[in-house]
Amino acid sequence: MDSDHADELALRFDAERPRLTALAIRLLGDQHAAEDAVQEAWLRLSRQDARSIDSLPAWLTTVVSRICLDQLRARRPEVLSEERPDSSAAHSDDSPSEAAVLAESLSEALVVVLETLSPLERLAFVLHDLFDVPFVTIAEILSISHAGARQHASRARRRIRGQSQGRRSTDYHLVAAFLEASRGGDFAELISLLAPDAVLEVDAAARALGAEDLRTGQLIADTFSGRARGAALTTVDGRAAAVWMHRGRARMLFTFGIRGGRITRIDMTADPDTLSEYTRSRSTAQ
Predict the structure, then answer these.
(1) How far is it, in rounded angstroms, from Cα 68 to Cα 131?
(2) DSSP H helical segments within the chain, as ranges?
(3) Confidence at residue 163, expressed as pLDDT on a 0 to 100 scale
(4) In the chain, N or C: fewer CB atoms in 10 Å?
């Protein structure tokens, strides 16, 4: 490959990078892992004769999706043969547009719901309903039939709808709103989400890092305002929580007590054993 062609290819790839990264983040739920997947796609492209590629965006979507699928399957082994046809999926009134609206409304909570899906369900839903990839292409990416791709997406939609209708989803929305307000420095919103007598409890490891217990919602709001930029919504024991991850490992865990639609308690954990257990359980669950 001559230098001019290589430079042009690099520019075309950089134009696709934001979309590919967004796709990989949705599929993997981890920004660092997503960036690694996109970089791997670039390495594969650089070894490919790009002139033989009909559509670079489509080719890159396929490559990134397969890289992510391999990672998801490594986290949670899955039977690769297609499941039997799901009659309820075939006759479902779920529409992709309806599911996309639902997914958009879930915001960060969607990341948590996606973690409950199988790798095939996750890819089918994200590719089709969030990134408008046609089922015929998804079927090729997943090496399944067109009908199988539609069934996996339909199952994913039903699970997402079920999560959105339950109490846990309400808690996810509340914790997601707390994280968003924290990142944005919205003190007034934080105050509205926290009970006046809310408490923050930190463990010994977090205290060693400089954190301290707090006893009012106002103090907690003041502490978190403008922070939590690296935290992501997650679950701990089936309940909404937040985690700061770095290179695939948990570094800080936040669990929430919620009563009456407001946050009454936050527990901050930096204990290495607890964080290691969380990282292992997260990998097993996925």
Answers:
(1) 15
(2) 3-28, 31-46, 56-75, 87-90, 96-106, 109-114, 119-125, 135-142, 146-165, 167-184, 187-193, 204-208, 217-224, 272-285
(3) 63
(4) N
| Helices 135-142 & 146-165 angle (0-180, nearest 10) | 100
The stretch 172-186 carries a mean pLDDT of 89
Q: 56 pLDDT band (50/70/90 cuts)?
A: very high
Cα separations in angstroms, 196 against 170, 171, 175, 224, 255 = 20, 18, 16, 15, 18
DSSP annotation of 57: H
Outline which parts of the chain fall under CATH 3.10.450.50.
168-285
Tokens of 16: 């696709």
For the domain spanning 3-74+84-165, the CATH number is 1.20.140
Q: Which spans in 47-94 are helix H?
A: 56-75, 87-90
- Strands in 239-246's sheet, in edge-to-edge order, are 194-202, 262-269, 249-259, 239-246, 231-236
Beta bridge partners of 267: 201, 255
Q: What is the pLDDT of residues 226-238, one digit of tens each?
A: 887 778 888 887 7
Residue 224: count other Cβ atoms within 10 Å of its Cβ.
23
Nearest residue to 69 via CA among 123, 115, 19: 123
Of the CA atoms within 13 Å of residue 20, those in its CB half-sphere come to 28
Supply angle C-alpha 96, 174, 249, rounded to 5: 85
Average pLDDT over residues 221-228: 90
Q: Which CATH class is domain 168-285?
A: alpha beta
Distance from C-alpha of 163 to C-alpha of 170, rounded to nearest angstrom: 9
